[in-house]
Design brief:
Layout: H1 12-17, H2 27-35, E1 40-44, H3 51-62, E2 92-96, H4 105-121, H5 134-144, H6 150-168, E3 173-177, H7 181-185, H8 192-207, E4 215-220, E5 236-239, E6 252-253, H9 254-263, H10 270-277, E7 280-282, E8 285-288, H11 290-298
Parallel strand pairs: 1-4, 1-5, 2-3, 3-4
Antiparallel strand pairs: 6-8, 7-8
């Protein structure tokens, strides 16, 4: 029986748990760790090219909450024992900023508070620790109670990093998905600039001069280069559609498309798939849109414009 295909955006963990078809992109982990295991990375790609799947893969690999998992068995990264010491060795702070999409600035602030509440709620056990000072517990509780002012919102991620390092004895990793979703959707509105300023303050505090940060990985559609978000982040490494390193880790290469079609019994469909879904290039790699290819296969090889 062939593996089922997911086109609904399951996380890497769910894909592996449910034995869905997966195209191995695990060496993105190797690319990052062989570059700098304490770096701050921004990976920008268009939507529907696997950014979130790859980010949840990093979460599955690094997060100590998943210690003992077998999701990487048989994947390429498992052939590189030099990376074993990093596996499930860190607390992970995961921020999905797609959830902060808002119509106005006040709604944006509210959604930021809800997002941070959800993040901090996973670490409530810190409040029971004798390692926390009373003022730290108050600041933590303000996030949980959604009462943090602007300065509290700005400083809460560095606070959480310090507390996690103190409790676990290792610095945490920060994963941020779709950092630019809300501000790009609000472009041209009067809320755009206030959103940009607040997001810039939060990300600047979390990613710059945060001595309790092990590594950070950020995804987005674009790099907002001339705005306040990255003006002070001279420590960030940007990987975009022109970057050669990791160019094959997003989207499907031609060989991977041929493998998929062969696995589902129709290698002869390659030229049709190529005529419909080729046309992207990241770095030196010719790539295909994954959502379109997997939709094409799951729809019995009937070509349509699945993604535009």
């Amino acid at each position: 029986m062939r593996q089922q295909i997911d086109t609904g955006g399951l996380s890497f963990m769910e894909i592996r748990r449910k034995d869905k078809y997966y195209v191995d992109k695990s060496m993105l982990i190797g690319d990052i760790l062989s570059s700098n295991d304490s770096g701050v990375y921004l990976f920008t790609r268009p939507r529907r090219f696997g950014k979130t799947t790859n980010l949840t893969m990093l979460d599955a690999f690094f997060n100590l909450d998943y210690k003992g998992n077998t999701w990487f068995d048989g994947l390429e990264i498992s052939n590189h024992p030099e990376f074993n010491r990093y596996m499930n060795a860190f607390p992970v702070i995961y921020l999905n900023l797609k959830e902060t999409k808002a119509e106005c600035f006040d709604e944006y602030v509210y959604r930021i508070r809800v997002l941070l509440y959800n993040v901090f709620s996973k670490f409530r056990y810190l409040l029971e620790s004798e390692l926390l000072a009373e003022d730290e517990k108050r600041a933590f509780s303000e996030v949980i109670n959604k009462t943090s002012d602007r300065y509290g919102l700005r400083d809460c991620i560095p606070l959480l990093c310090r507390l996690l390092e103190r409790y676990h004895g290792v610095k945490p990793i920060i994963l941020i998905d779709e950092y630019d979703r809300a501000v790009s959707d609000a472009f041209g509105s009067e809320s755009h600039r206030p959103m940009m300023n607040l997001l810039g303050e939060i990300m600047g505090a979390a990613l710059k001069n945060n001595e309790s940060l092990q590594m950070a990985y950020v995804t987005g559609i674009m790099q907002i280069a001339k705005e306040s978000i990255f003006s002070d982040l001279n420590n960030i490494r940007v990987n975009n559609i022109f970057s050669i390193k990791s160019d094959e880790r997003f989207g499907f290469t031609e060989n991977e498309v041929k493998m998929i079609l062969a696995d589902y019994g129709h290698p002869e469909k390659f030229e049709e798939a190529k005529s419909w879904y080729d046309g992207y290039r990241f770095g030196d790699a010719e790539v295909y849109n994954p959502f379109s290819i997997m939709s094409y296969v799951s729809e019995d090889f009937k070509p349509e414009s699945f993604w535009a």
